[in-house]
Design goal:
655 residues; Rossmann fold; 3 domains; two-stranded antiparallel ribbon; 11 strands; 59% helix; elongated
């Protein structure tokens, strides 16, 4: 039980999350606010001996004049004393170089009558930028205590903790006394008064900063303006972005190859150890053929997932991602989308669920709906396991094109393909959907460039990779057990006499060939074999056998289940120590004895997963965000139908 509840609030890009990480370390958890699917981060910090604080990281917001769901959520937490997250003290985080804009939010929070502390972050930039602040005068004018902090250099954290401990001594009086409450409902005729209040607040802050803040303009100029001229240039900006993107995908394959091979071999060996050291029986078979291969089918992709999140975290931490958003905004406006749509589309490369939730900042309903409908086309991290295993099967690891790794090139093409189809779909929907809506405007924060903090990048990688593994792991474990049962038993066949049945028709087989035929006989006559054979006519034109068909059906729960499902199916009855990739590479069609995973079939699978709507969680989120089943069902059937047709055409041309 914590002694003090602390709420962190601030504008985006003020270093609020970095401060949260400094205070709480790994002692934090992610959940949802009651009744709403917006993430909340809560952690504990030790203020002094025997005193603990619970710290909640509120969503980044520019003001408490709620015009988006994030701002509305902040108002709810800070205004409702019955709310479980209502704080004892609020810490407002401001950026040393953007104080005027950041302090607007501070004056609003101060009006609420909650003890409020002002943190001025990034003080390591004071000397570089020639900034000087009269701290005592500013504390007097703003009616609070101020902590100068550098999250990057871990400065000022101890002093901030002391102020938090002594929060009851802080003034709860507003620092801007002639304003109405920010929480009052403004009628239409009162809006002009509200705009006048905003002007007065900024006039007040201007007078405060004139007395307390100074900056040498010569030192303020420098690297940022030079970098911006290059990175958001109308030509070189795009060239640099695609070069970075290209380098990331090259690294994803080359850097992760060794740890992935190690994990693959380790799980194959683990299955063999289980068989060798446990007594024969149902449990041993379940463990060796179901659970271990199924979980291995997810764990093997931890290196690639971790590297992907590491690269995206570095780009965000450095301030470059905001420049990408600014660049892409110029393009997005031509496709019937808001500039704000690029944020969900880019964040969709991690996961479509939070990406779709982030569309709540788009005020225009038509633009928001189009963004929701096209975002699942962007390649999320759950598709990466499918892409990685299939690409490694159809493209040799040493294949190069102009000295570049072909596997990395193909992965980049798939990401660009998903984004391109999302844009084309947006153009079509903009013309088809007859929804009237007001024009929306796009404002993007341009933070200072800074070296990414290793601590923040590490926390982000650990948190997101852990979420991917455990969320996928729960589904994989349940499905692995179910699939093993369905693959180990069947209707109307005496499995105990499988050897005798197979020998009657194949008497000249060697012992190794006999065991392979017995395993195939059991699998084809199992429950899952019957199901697979039933759907095979519909999927064979795509180049799939019934085993791939079962994996495709199972992966509607979650895309990454595809590999785990195949790992379980191929492990049933297989007593040889072999990796997932080796088993898939050796798989052949029973009638033609040709390899299942040919180039044509591989491309067909890649295209199907690039376009199909295979994620029940995403469908559920779309249902919630659109307030009904109409749009998610249309989305699912259109995307899956498009995926089927595309995969069919590709296979028929390439076979």
């Amino acid at each position: 039980m914590s002694d003090i509840k602390v709420a962190l609030i601030g504008n985006p890009n003020t270093g609020k999350t970095s401060l949260f990480n400094r205070l709480t370390g790994l002692n934090q958890k992610v959940g949802n606010y009651p009744g709403i699917t917006v993430d909340k981060k809560i952690g504990q910090t030790k203020l002094s001996r025997g005193i603990l604080a619970e710290v909640i990281d509120l969503p980044g917001t520019y003001s408490l004049n709620a015009s988006s769901i994030d701002e509305d959520l902040a108002v709810q937490v800070l205004s409702d004393q019955s709310n479980e997250n209502y704080p004892d003290v609020v810490v407002v985080v401001a950026d040393i170089e953007n104080l005027k804009r950041n302090l607007y939010l501070y004056t609003q929070v101060k009006d609420l009558g909650i003890p409020t502390i002002l943190v001025i972050n990034m003080i390591d930039q004071m000397k570089v930028k020639g900034i000087d602040i009269d701290m005592q005068e500013m504390e007097s004018l703003l009616e609070t205590k101020i902590a100068f902090v550098s999250s990057k250099q871990n400065k000022g954290i101890s002093y901030l903790k002391k102020i938090i401990i002594d929060y009851k001594s802080l003034s709860t009086l507003p620092c801007f006394v002639d304003s109405p409450s920010v929480l009052s409902k403004l009628a239409t005729e009162e809006k002009k008064k509200h705009h006048l209040e905003t002007v007065r607040r900024y006039q007040f802050l201007k007078s405060v900063l004139e007395k307390t803040y100074s900056q040498n303009p010569k030192k303020a100029k420098g690297l940022r303006s030079l970098l911006d001229r290059v990175l958001i240039h109308r030509f070189f900006g795009y060239l640099i972005f695609f070069t970075i993107l290209f380098s990331v995908f090259q690294a994803l394959f080359s850097w992760s190859a060794v740890p992935m091979d190690f994990i693959d071999e380790a799980f194959a060996g683990l299955s063999e150890i289980a068989r060798a050291n446990l007594s024969e029986g149902v449990f041993t078979n379940l463990l060796a053929e179901g659970i271990i291969p199924g979980i291995g089918g997810v764990v093997i992709f931890i290196p690639q997932i971790a590297f992907l999140f590491m690269f995206t975290s570095v780009l965000e931490e450095s301030g470059y991602m905001s420049r990408v958003v600014f660049l892409m905004d110029k393009i997005m406006r031509n496709f019937g989308l808001s500039g704000k749509s690029i944020v969900p589309l880019i964040s969709g490369t991690a996961c479509a669920i939070p990406a779709i939730m982030s569309t709540r900042n788009i005020e225009n309903w038509k633009e928001r709906l189009i963004t929701i409908l096209v975002t699942p086309f962007t390649t999320c991290s759950a598709r990466l396991p499918v892409y990685a295993i299939i690409i490694s099967l159809i493209v040799p690891a040493d294949a190069n094109f102009m000295s570049f790794n072909v596997q990395g090139l193909l992965l980049m093409v798939l990401y660009l393909l998903g984004f391109g189809v999302a844009i084309l779909s947006a153009i079509l929907l903009d013309k088809v959907l007859k929804i009237g809506a007001s024009k929306s405007y796009f404002v993007v924060e341009m933070p200072n460039y800074k070296l990414p903090l290793f601590r923040n990048v590490a926390y982000n990688v650990i948190e997101k990779t852990k979420a991917f593994v455990f969320e996928a792991g729960k589904i994989i474990l349940a499905l692995s057990i179910l699939l093993w049962v369905l693959a180990s038993y069947g209707p109307g066949v005496d499995f105990d006499n499988a050897e005798r049945i197979v020998t009657q028709t194949n008497s000249s087989l060697s012992e190794k060939e006999l065991q392979t035929e017995i395993a195939s006989f059991k699998l084809e006559n199992s429950y899952i074999g019957k199901m697979g054979k039933a759907i095979e006519p519909a999927i064979r034109p795509l180049g799939y056998d019934w085993k791939i068909g079962i994996a495709v059906l199972a992966s509607f729960a979650a895309r990454e289940v595809f590999v785990g499902t195949l790992a379980t199916i191929y492990s049933v009855g297989n007593e040889q120590e072999s990796t997932i990739k080796e088993r898939m590479r050796k798989e052949v069609f029973q009638d033609s004895k040709k390899p299942v995973y040919s180039f044509a079939t591989g491309v067909s699978v890649l295209l199907f997963y690039a376009f199909a709507m295979q994620c029940m969680s995403t469908i559920a989120i779309v249902k919630r965000e659109t307030n009904g089943w109409k749009w998610p069902l249309i989305q699912m059937f259109v995307m899956t139908g498009f995926a089927y047709i595309t995969a069919l055409i590709a296979y028929q041309i390439l076979k």
